[in-house]
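so im writing up the methods section and need the Tryptophan synthase beta chain record in one place, dumping it here so i stop losing it
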Amino acid sequence: MSLQTKYLLDESRMPKFWYNIQADLPSPAPAVLHPGTLQPVGPDDLAPLFPMELILQEVSTQREIEIPEPVRDVYRAWRPAPLYRAHRLERALGTPAKIFYKYEGVSPAGSHKPNTAVAQAFYNQKAGVKRLVTETGAGQWGTSLAYAGALFGLQVEVFQVRVSYDQKPYRRAVMETYGARCVASPSSETEFGRSVLAKTPDHPGSLGIAISEAVELAVQREDTKYALGSVLNHVLLHQTIIGLEAMEQLQMADEWPDVIVGCTGGGSNFAGIAFPFIGHGLRGGRKPRIVAVEPAACPSLTRGRYAYDFGDTGRMTPLTKMHTLGSQFTPPGFHAGGLRYHGMAPLVSHCKQLGLLEAVAYNQVECFEAGVLFARNEGIVPAPEANHAVKGAIAEALRCKREGKADTILFNLCGHGHFDMAAYQKYFAGELTDEHYDEKELAMALAGLPSVPA
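--- predicted struct ---
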């Protein structure tokens, strides 16, 4: 008897609404604060950065928010994304577990990021915006916003973290192919970038620095807004189409997950796969274990402090309560560039505080080892970021093997690694090492957290 491997939804069954977990949380997430007054921010405070419709999504507690038809029309180029059963990986591991993965690498940009890039570009164009400025780590987000900008006629400028800019030249080439301009950060194009370079001319960069540069440019012109690829509530909202589709596909397979695994950097792909299932459990349905996997070199959930902090190094953004390593923290230059952010999405952080998820950290060499095992059995070469989810899923499958349990495991394979082969070459040459952050730098960054009364 042949075993079904992939589960495909017809375009007509693509979700028409995003899911907002804020409607179902037992307690609301802490307010976003103005850094000057320490009072909750209002729409006017965010208006220089975002169009009003995205601001309203940021604060909404409505359970379902309709996906505009122009956005769904673009989504149809790759959505619904396939769900796969990893039969060959299961056999290689000798596990009784059933492993499923939602594959987001089928998008034009090769990752989950267009799910929100397309939505953000649509709302900005609708508001009359002409230019979007953003940051990117490994380049997944910058590539996606460049693609979305091309579709909606928007100029896109991207500040890419210097170490990734140097490691991944083909990502830069793809951004330029879509029409975006890509600059290494820290750069000489902003006041903040120049101040960083004056102190450290060879600074490797960080997402916090790149965010500061993008925000600085965004507020200088009325025709320009800022776009963020993770962390914020409206970004996580747009990604929930991943989990909503997975729910329907697992029903096609007559399965429901016992464990859900996702890699976490800022939190968007993790929230995309996990939030619909967490919400289902909060409303009385089955509650799977939810496992967030992060890099040991930038472990905000496992080593960070749950506190109010700035979202950027230059301290230009509002204060959000999140698991943070400190906005002044610069992680080492490990290859999963998209997982280098100092903080975790406030909603993901809040869910962890509520006990709705657990977190684990792995080093990059063991994650690449897991990615290679996955590729040799399933055929897809995962992005370095996604290797963390692969590692987490394999760890769960091996636990099932030890315990003799046939759990159903679902993970999000959030992107392919076709532009990351230099990292794989280093792995095979034995040149890829586990990067470790400086404990003293972490202590200093945490000591510099803003003082916010309890």
